Backbone:
């Protein structure tokens, strides 16, 4: 997928800059050409010599360098590439991109390019969470800028934990690959896929909601893996911190009912993978105004019972798709979150929900599945139960996508 592609890599300031050396190595192994622009900030973390040695090309640093301008010029530099990758993308460069500033070679090239741009943000979690950065990123994504990461983890510089680490080189390379049409000639080309992911939020009142601990990692990974095999993939996701996977049509929803509507709107599809942790119940009537505690000193002396929450059942999206007579996806795959008797419950659940396969995982506290990176699953099919080894969620996703590709009947 990357063979013969030309990547303009913009390296901005951040400790994660060292990881871009590995990105260069990996994409070159796949046959891509890399040219680098190194910003002043980036040069504090990685040298032009290292970038030049790995890319086997000149490294561009100075907007007003006459030789560079004479030989190539910033417009050509940005347009000769098939994609511009900003890795690491600092909060500063995202802000400049959002504002359309062009005060150095990197930002000038980014403003001048007519090619897709992908950013791999890397910064302190507080900077990533700041409303200014959120707004800048939203502007950029609204303009079609692709994003990979950031991920959650320990920050190199402060030992803090949080969302802000640059995506790993593997994930960046995978995102670039799916940008280039996933796989125009992949096993799932001409196929349509639907994936659900994340939790749903069910309003109690305008400020409170019922939710669960799903991170969306597994569902997003499945959507990424299907798209990488060439499927036209719609991902319907509840609220998560996961970045939008490249090359996937993302529909953001909040509630189970919105998720069902978005899924029905995405039909027809060849395969549906329901990985969302949909809330089984919602409050019967979400209060229009914030529920208040009774005033102190009232009849009960302020000690009234808390309001009773009356719950009603949400629609079951998996069972709805699995039970369709007309327009049922050829393959309907559910996930089962179980805390005990995992396989037994999952076997019964596969039948009850009318799905073809069920991927069962243990979400007991001991298994640390929710929010964790690894997953140990059982694949339940009509033919029996397969135990898969404990592997990363993206490896589970890739293995599942591969199985789907092998199983779908020829189009
Ligand atoms: N699911 C769904 N709609 C719901 C509830 C669940 O589509 N309203 C899907 C999930 O996406 C998953 C599968 O059903 O693919 C199983 O979800 P799980 O939470 O394990 O099962 P439940 O049906 O909620 O059963 P229980 O909680 O009683 O085990």
Residues:
């Amino acid at each position: 997928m990357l063979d013969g592609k030309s990547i303009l890599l913009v390296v901005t300031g951040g400790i994660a800059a060292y990881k871009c050396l590995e990105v260069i190595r990996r994409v070159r192994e796949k046959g891509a050409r890399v040219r680098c622009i190194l910003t002043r900030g980036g040069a504090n973390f990685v040298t032009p010599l290292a970038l030049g040695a790995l890319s086997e090309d000149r490294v561009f640093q100075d907007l007003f360098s006459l030789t560079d301008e004479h030989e190539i010029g910033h417009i050509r530099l940005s347009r000769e590439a098939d994609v511009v990758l900003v890795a690491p993308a600092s909060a500063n460069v995202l802000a400049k991109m959002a504002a359309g500033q062009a005060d150095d070679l990197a930002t000038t090239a980014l403003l001048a390019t007519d090619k897709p741009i992908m950013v791999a943000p890397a910064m302190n979690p507080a900077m990533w969470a700041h409303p200014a950065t959120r707004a800048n990123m939203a502007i950029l994504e609204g303009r079609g800028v692709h994003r990979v990461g950031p991920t959650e983890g320990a920050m190199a510089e402060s030992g803090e934990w949080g969302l802000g680490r640059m995506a790993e080189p593997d994930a960046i390379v995978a995102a670039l690959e799916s940008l280039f049409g996933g796989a125009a000639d992949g096993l799932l080309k001409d196929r349509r896929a639907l994936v659900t992911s994340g939790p749903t939020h069910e309003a109690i009142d305008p400020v409170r909601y019922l939710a669960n601990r799903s991170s969306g990692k597994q569902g997003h990974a499945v959507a990424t893996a299907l798209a990488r095999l060439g499927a036209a993939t719609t991902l319907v996701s509840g609220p998560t911190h996961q970045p939008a996977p490249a090359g996937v049509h993302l529909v953001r929803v909040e509630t189970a009912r919105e998720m069902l509507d978005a899924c029905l709107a995405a039909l027809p599809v060849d395969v549906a993978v329901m990985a969302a942790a949909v809330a089984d119940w919602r409050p019967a009537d979400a209060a229009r105004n914030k529920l208040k505690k009774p005033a102190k000193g009232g009849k009960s002396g302020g000690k009234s019972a808390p309001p009773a929450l009356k719950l009603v059942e949400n629609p079951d999206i998996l069972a709805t798709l699995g039970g369709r007579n007309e327009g049922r996806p050829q393959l309907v795959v559910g996930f089962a979150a179980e805390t005990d008797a995992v396989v037994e419950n999952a076997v019964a659940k596969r039948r009850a929900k009318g799905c073809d396969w069920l991927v069962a995982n243990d979400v007991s506290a001991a298994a640390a599945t929710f929010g964790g990176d690894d997953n140990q699953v059982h694949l339940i099919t009509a033919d029996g139960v397969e135990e898969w080894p404990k592997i990363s969620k993206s490896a589970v996703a890739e293995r599942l996508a591969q199985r789907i590709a092998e199983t779908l009947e020829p189009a």
In short: DSSP finds 14 helices and 22 strands in the chain. The first helix runs from residue 17 to 29.
